[in-house]
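Chain and backbone:
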Amino acid sequence: MPSHSQAVIVDAVRTPLAQGKPGGAYSRVHPVDLHSTVLAALVERTGIDPAVVDDVISGAVGQIGEQSGNTARWAALAAGFPESVPGVTVDRQCGSSQQALHFAAQGVMAGAYDVVIASGVESMSHVPITSQAAGRDFLGPRVAARYPGGLVPQGISAELIAQRWGLSRARLDEFSAESHRRAALAWKNGLFDSQVVRVTDLATDETIRPGTSVEVLSGLRPAFRDDYWVERFPELDWRITAGNSSPVNDGAAAVLVASEEAAARLGLVPRARVHSFAVVGDDPLLMLTGIIPATRKVLARAGLSVRDIDVFEVNEAFAPVVLAWQAEIGADLAKVNPHGGAIAIGHPLGGSGARLTTTLLNALEQTGGRYGLQVMCEAGGLANATVIERV
């Protein structure tokens, strides 16, 4: 990919992820303070003067209530950054902070930034997932006319994907149990320690269930089955449960990006470079399948094959999303989310893209891998894909 300068990743950090509901570990923590924790951690870990940061580009999905009013700006100020450091909040749904990373890298490559932070936050205990729509029609009559059958919630899309790719309930639950096993093992072996900064006394991701088994998951009821959807989609077997879906979470993550020249000037040691990136639109009914063409597009741009990728981070919004992707792309599942995924670790919407980058970077370093690919499904049939190269 031609560039003015290489965009390098200097550091990446995340919080442990908490349950995104009343009683969760961060339910009494303001989203701005949650977000500011990872920004301050980047400064402390790298020793940079925050005054050199050209921008803070942050993702948040629920931009209402305590996450309204451009939360990136307030998080930078809460972190003690000088008032001269700007901030902007972006929304590409679940891929918001991955898009923030793309914007940060693009700014560096274009020569517009020397040092920039890409970050993301979501406090689903403070801003529940349904807050933004609040019963309003956000599609409008022209979209409704284009899709006369009507669009569906993500859970129904997950059901449609499971049906189309012939993924049994047992296979979904098996995948989900493995996500918990891998995540619990990663914590036990200290593989997350270097990437995590605490906010409260929460020491690990709150939604990991080390004892989860296929037998336990098989006893859960379908989460999205009701009379309306059964009538509309009589062909569905109703396989999606709370156990093979990602939970709702609170959490934040941040990535420090710089030009090679700025990193050298400031005495910063790059850990990786942003090699290639892509974003696609796909069928908004299936909605979550965009990761398939996004992966193909970013690999083509990178001049790489699936075999060249050492670690994949594929967001586990729902188990069938990853398994359908794997069936089409042909990736070795041993390399996919090797430390567990969102089904176990959690999915704090606007913070998940930067969380995946943080986990991917560390996994590459821990395994000695060279190339990592992360890809994120997003509401509306969108997907972001990113390839990073360890240096």
Notes: The first strand starts at residue 7 and ends at 14.
